Amino acid sequence: MEVGHYINDMALIVIVAVIVLVGSITLNALYKRTNTFQNQFIDIVKFQRLKDDGRFDIVNLGSNHPKFAFDYTESGIKGMNWAIGPQTFMFDFIILKKYKKHLNPGAKVIIPVCPLNFFLLETHVNNLVKYYRIFSKHEMPKYDIKQKLTEYTLPVFRHPARAKRIIRDVKADNRLSITENPMNKEQIEKDATFWIEGCWNPEFNIDVENMSTLSKANQQSIDGNIRILSEMIQYCIDNDLQPVLAILPVTKELSSKFPEEFIQQHILRYINESNKQGVPVLNYLKDERFTTPDLYINSFFMNANGRKYFTKIFVNELNNKEAGK
Questions:
Q1: How is 182-216 classified by DSSP, letter by letter?
Q2: Can you give the three-state secondary structure of 138-156, one letter per residue?
Q3: Tell me: the pLDDT tens digits for 193-229?
């Protein structure tokens, strides 16, 4: 009799375990279809769609700023925006090496330098998840199999509360499709203040408008990024590619918060130290042709119309520069 009860109990445990397992797998699969999960990979999908015979004459690397700044559809040249937000020079270089086969000989590689690019050397751990979709263990620094399993492969197992997003999801990230600036003048000014005082200053423990002595951590990041950028430039030259450094525009509300001394000492000086090869540098940070808020979705990122307008002029001026005009 006791043996029979034991068998029945074990059978019940197995049944419950199977139900829990199947339920967990189902929840995990449903969660991975949500915008909450998929929004992480919005910049990755384009690389998964690349075909082996796809070749480009111009591409840009970079983080969120260039992601919203380049659109080659009306530029008269076959190009692709390879920016991933957020991203460091380190991962720019990895992207370039992995997808170099999609570039024609002599292709232009635009390496954008964002205002605080040199201050961020390593990608924050939480921002690594997106790369598990395209990078192998040997391609990705700090590849963590545990993180891949718990945050990418089976995200609900470790964080069951995320299952609520199956019912109450967030909106899909549609910022790239916005064609106008939804912010009014006051909101744009507040947004510009946020980037300086609410984002970059606390993240890097600095004061952009009143820079003083750099911390040891800042100096290490700057030195590391100078080295990486220099190596990336040389890699392009060695592989029959044309590297171009570009400082992209922002609204007047944001650009006005960068003192000339900051631009000279913490952007241009680092570029010069990286660029011993003397490749072209195009500086649009305060270019008044591109400072009107109508071209942006906030104080920093261009809208769909703004990036087509900027890219067309950028490519034309780059071609003229090469022709010596």
A1: ---HHHHHHHHHIIIIIIIHHHHT--GGG--SPPH
A2: CCCCCCCHHHHHHHHHCHH
A3: 999 999 999 999 999 999 988 999 999 999 999 999 9
Query: What pairing do the DSSP bridges indicate for beta strands 79-81 and 103-112?
Result: unpaired
Please write the tens of the pLDDT for every residue from 18-73: 554 555 788 899 999 999 999 999 999 999 999 876 799 999 999 999 999 999 99
| Backbone dihedral region for residue 2 (phi beyond 0: left; psi -120 to 50: alpha; all else: beta) | alpha
| Amino acid letter, 20 | V
Separation of alpha carbons 35 and 324, rounded Å: 48
C-beta separation of 111 from 65 below 8 A: no
Q: State which amino acid sits at residue 108.
A: K
Q: Which tokens in the block code for residue 224?
A: 């590391």
* Distance between CA atoms of residues 110 and 25, nearest Å: 43
Half-sphere exposure of 159 (CA within 13 A, CB side): 15
- Give the gyration radius of the chain's Cα atoms: 23
Residue 184 CA to residue 278 CA, distance in Å, equals 41
User: Do the Cβ atoms of 243 and 111 come closer than 8 Å?
Assistant: yes
d(C-alpha 71, C-alpha 310), whole Å: 8
Q: How far is CA 319 from CA 80, 100, 301, 313, in A?
A: 17, 22, 25, 10
All domains of the chain in start order, with CATH: 46-124+175-323 (3.40.50.1110)
What is the pTM assigned to this prediction?
0.92
CA nearest neighbour of 237 among 294, 276, 202: 276
pLDDT band at 157, cuts 50/70/90? confident
Question: Partners of 302 in the beta sheet?
Answer: 296
Q: Is the pLDDT of residue 1 over 60?
A: no
* Residue among 78, 37, 46, 81 nearest 63 (CA): 81
Contact 111, 232 (CB under 8 A): yes
